[in-house]
């Protein structure tokens, strides 16, 4: 599975990672812009949720004209790098304070496992559309995003957006903020999730509510090269593209406890812990719950705003990552085999992580299996090492299949003190040891050009089938088990001339760790 970071991120966006969409379904109308001509009309709005309080078995479209829905006007469609849901949150009673919204960290931009974006410019077209009900077309409120105050997928998938409106200005438009909860609900609590998932039907592509149940109080997840702490599992079944950032409430409540982040529902089951198939870390390893969805906790984020209603991540009460961490050269390690060739010599895979930092002078680290290594716990860390003494960690990675963590903390003194990075915001480098060959058969797409012959495309299924080797020869004499004659498939359709038929196409698929599947043969008459 040796893919570059850009290839990995492109795949993640292409498969609408973490229940976000990479496109919008019609630009809705607002107070600031003319309504979209393809937006749903009030008279043609579909049936609405009866609101009887029962678990629905799926989301129900909300009626924006029902007084009971008024509290949800603060939840809207976020248009950014991805299409998600965002919620306007209560930060201060001061009407002159800037308005802020929360959404998932990957919605402004897909980020690396340790990236922390602080006080960044927003895209010129980034916006949130509030009052986003199917039957409130003329009353929707479109608000530009002024700044990305904070965004990360490091441990928690969260973004804080500063909007180009004040609290008072939104209030005059009928949009009242929702309060951030001070604590997380216990396991087994009935929940309401309200969001704007993308839908194939324009009539249904608006705010919806699902009533579901919380599961375990919190779990740690591995998904792709990301790690998520304290995720709240639930049994919500209607988490789709656009659902990321949807606020989670205790049933019938108005305080936001979490934001929907990702789901294992709908995953094909071929590759655990990859994008769209998150794994829960357990006492003995990991497990996939194919019927589970997950939310990022936001309890306590109210402490990130001062008395004037201004965002300040430096406040002691603010639980957000301050961005201070060691820098590591190179992209994510991803999936690997336990042995590599180094100048013709076979050796064990090593971490080989080169560290640097403009201010930190020392670092500490520990390694271990992801399921058994609590990087936020100082127990097990080695003694501080000066970056000037050695800045490269060359420890060998274990041979056994699984996920492994390298936990890194930095500081400005030879003895850990207040200048050191808070272990809550530890940097984690992750690697997967994978020795299992691909189980999936290659996919082929055949184009028949008549007298000229055939052209065969090979279909990729990352990470299980991320690269191919192939050869073509006479069907009677070509032995796919013989390694001679194979070429790399460069994503150019393979020509088979009509005069060369019958022919045999031999295909060897490899996963991202470089494990090869047994040869697959297809004969063309």
Automatic annotation (TrEMBL):
Disordered: annotated segments: 29-60
Keywords recorded for this protein, A-Z: Hydrolase, Protease, Signal
GO terms for MF: peptidase activity
Any GO BP annotation: proteolysis
Full protein name: Serine protease
Pfam families: Trypsin_2
Lineage top rank: taxon: Bacteria
Biased composition range(s): Low complexity: 29-53
Signal peptide: 1-24
């Amino acid at each position: 599975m040796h893919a570059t970071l850009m290839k990995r991120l492109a795949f993640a966006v292409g498969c609408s990672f973490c229940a976000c969409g990479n496109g919008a379904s019609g630009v809705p109308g607002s107070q600031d812009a003319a309504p979209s001509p393809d937006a749903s009309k009030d008279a043609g709005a579909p049936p609405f949720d009866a609101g009887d309080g029962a678990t629905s078995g799926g989301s129900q479209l909300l009626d924006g004209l029902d007084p009971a829905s008024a509290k949800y006007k603060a939840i809207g469609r976020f248009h950014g790098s991805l299409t998600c849901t965002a919620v306007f949150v209560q930060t201060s009673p001061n009407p002159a304070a800037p308005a802020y919204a929360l959404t998932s960290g990957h919605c402004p931009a897909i980020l690396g496992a340790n990236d922390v974006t602080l006080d960044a410019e927003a895209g010129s077209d980034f916006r949130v559309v509030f009052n986003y009900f199917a039957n409130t077309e003329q009353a929707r409120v479109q608000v530009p995003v002024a700044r990305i105050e904070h965004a990360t997928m490091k441990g928690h998938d969260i973004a804080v957006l500063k909007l180009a409106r004040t609290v008072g200005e939104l209030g005059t438009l009928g949009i009242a903020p929702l309060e951030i909860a001070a604590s997380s609900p216990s396991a087994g609590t009935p929940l309401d999730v309200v969001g704007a998932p993308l839908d194939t039907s324009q009539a249904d592509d608006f705010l919806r509510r699902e009533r579901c149940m919380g599961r375990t109080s919190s779990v740690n997840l591995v998904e792709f090269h990301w790690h998520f702490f304290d995720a709240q599992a639930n049994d919500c079944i209607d988490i789709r593209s656009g659902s990321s950032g949807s606020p989670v409430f205790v049933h019938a409540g108005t305080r936001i406890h979490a934001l929907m982040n990702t789901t294992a529902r709908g995953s094909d089951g071929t590759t655990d812990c990859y994008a769209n198939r998150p794994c829960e870390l357990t006492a003995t390893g990991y497990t996939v719950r194919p019927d589970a969805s997950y939310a990022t906790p936001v309890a306590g984020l109210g402490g990130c705003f001062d008395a004037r209603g201004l965002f300040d991540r430096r406040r002691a009460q603010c639980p957000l990552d301050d961005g201070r961490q060691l820098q590591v050269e190179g992209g994510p390690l991803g999936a690997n085999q336990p042995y590599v060739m180094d100048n013709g010599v076979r050796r064990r895979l090593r971490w080989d992580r080169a560290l640097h930092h403009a201010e930190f002078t020392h670092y500490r680290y520990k390694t271990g299996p992801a399921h058994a290594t609590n990087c936020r716990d100082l127990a097990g860390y080695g003694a501080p090492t000066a970056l000037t003494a050695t800045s490269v960690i060359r420890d060998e990675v274990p041979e056994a299949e699984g996920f492994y963590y390298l936990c890194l903390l930095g500081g400005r003194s030879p003895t850990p003190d207040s200048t050191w990075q808070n272990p809550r915001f530890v940097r984690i480098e992750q690697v997967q040891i994978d020795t299992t060959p691909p189980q999936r058969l290659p996919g082929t797409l055949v184009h028949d050009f008549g007298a000229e012959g055939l052209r065969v495309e090979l279909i990729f299924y990352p990470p299980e089938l991320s690269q191919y080797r192939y050869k073509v020869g006479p069907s009677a004499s070509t032995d796919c088990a013989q390694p001679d004659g194979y070429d790399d498939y460069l994503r150019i359709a393979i020509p088979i001339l009509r005069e060369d038929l019958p022919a045999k196409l031999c295909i060897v698929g490899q996963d991202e760790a470089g494990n090869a599947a047994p040869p697959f043969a297809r004969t063309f008459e």
